[in-house]
């Protein structure tokens, strides 16, 4: 049982590495994550603010991973262009955009008062 769990974590970490290696947007998210953590440490934000930042950052990473997974699968199943596959990819990318904007707003609401 434990060996299966360890193997599952290995697959998940391999997936994150694949995400960062193959997706320019994921590399941007990695850069943004490092900047946000550094700024949070520099500004000494509260535990509650850290919790909000962690949820925002984690949500963006989860959305990006799910979007990439859907795109990989769609490209394998339907390598030729299809209207529904294109729509699925667009909607998935829109989800990443929506949570990214939400995370940016949360970051501004947390960091701006500390900066100003």
Secondary structural class: mainly alpha
How many structural domains?
1
Q: Report the β-strand fraction as a percent range.
A: under 5%
The average pLDDT value, as a whole number, equals 95
**What pattern of helices and strands is seen along the backbone?**
HHHH
Indicate the CATH architecture: Orthogonal Bundle
Largest sheet: none
Helix count?
4
List keywords for this structure.
Helix Hairpins, single chain, 116 residues, 91% helix, mainly alpha
Concise structural overview:
The chain is built from four helices and no strands.
Describe the 3D structure.
The chain has 116 residues and is an all-alpha fold. The protein has a single domain, classed as Helix Hairpins (Orthogonal Bundle), CATH 1.10.287. Helices cover 91% and strands 0% of the residues. It starts with a helix and ends with a helix.
């Amino acid at each position: 049982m434990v060996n299966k769990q360890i193997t599952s974590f290995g697959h998940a970490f391999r997936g994150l590495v694949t995400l960062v290696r193959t997706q320019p947007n994921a590399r941007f998210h990695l850069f943004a994550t490092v900047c946000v953590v550094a700024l949070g440490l520099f500004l000494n934000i509260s535990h509650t603010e850290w919790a909000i930042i962690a949820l925002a950052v984690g949500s963006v990473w989860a959305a990006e991973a799910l979007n990439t997974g859907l795109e990989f699968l769609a490209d394998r199943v339907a390598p030729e262009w299809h209207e529904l596959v294109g729509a699925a990819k667009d909607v998935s990318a829109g989800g990443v955009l929506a949570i990214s904007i939400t995370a940016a707003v949360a970051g501004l609401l947390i960091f701006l008062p500390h900066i100003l």
